[in-house]
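[agent] plan:
  1. take the single chain provided in the ticket
  2. run structure prediction with default settings
  3. attach structure tokens to the ticket
  4. add a short note for the reviewer (M.T.)
[agent] executing step 1
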Amino acid sequence: MLIAPSILGADLGCIDREAKRIQESGAEWVHIDVMDGHFVPNISFGVNMVRTLRRLMGEATLDVHLMIEQPDRYANDFIEAGADCLNIHLEARHQSARTLESIRQKGCRAGLAINPATLLKHAVPLLPLCDQLLCMTVNPGFGGQPFMKEVLPKIREAREIILRQNYQIDITVDGGVNDETAPSCIGSGANILVSGSHL
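[agent] step 2 finished; step 3 output follows
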């Protein structure tokens, strides 16, 4: 089980210090939320932040979450900047299968992100193209939201499908993860937990 600190919860005025603090905590993964103001009603980081964190974070895995429209147009830029895993949203405007395949072909882990309201059945056909499934447990766009426990059955079902099909896929939970909600996530089958506001 991995905990991936989210840069969304960091003090960006002291990014060098924050990167050092994350490294000293022993975190192996760092989660970077990229928002474009269109797919979600907020704007956050871009390619330059990924490039900066690649320089500051050494060997840490940079887990980049693209909450953007048309992620296929920008995926390569983030990979070249140093992303180790690129999560694209099923709900964004693009051809999901082609985008996932392209990410993998460039040597990057491919992740599929799904919003709380999205039915798992829409993601299942794409699982063979994924290295991880990111289940949102808040509506995407802002940190500090309460955990939506109604997503837990979807996580449990996803883990059952992954085990049954013998896929090698991580399940990431993103949103409202803290000391109280983490055990339920793990018990439902998640093995990567993103936490920002709590940390």
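[agent] step 4 note for reviewer: Residues 147 and 176 are 4 Å apart (CA to CA).
[agent] ticket updated
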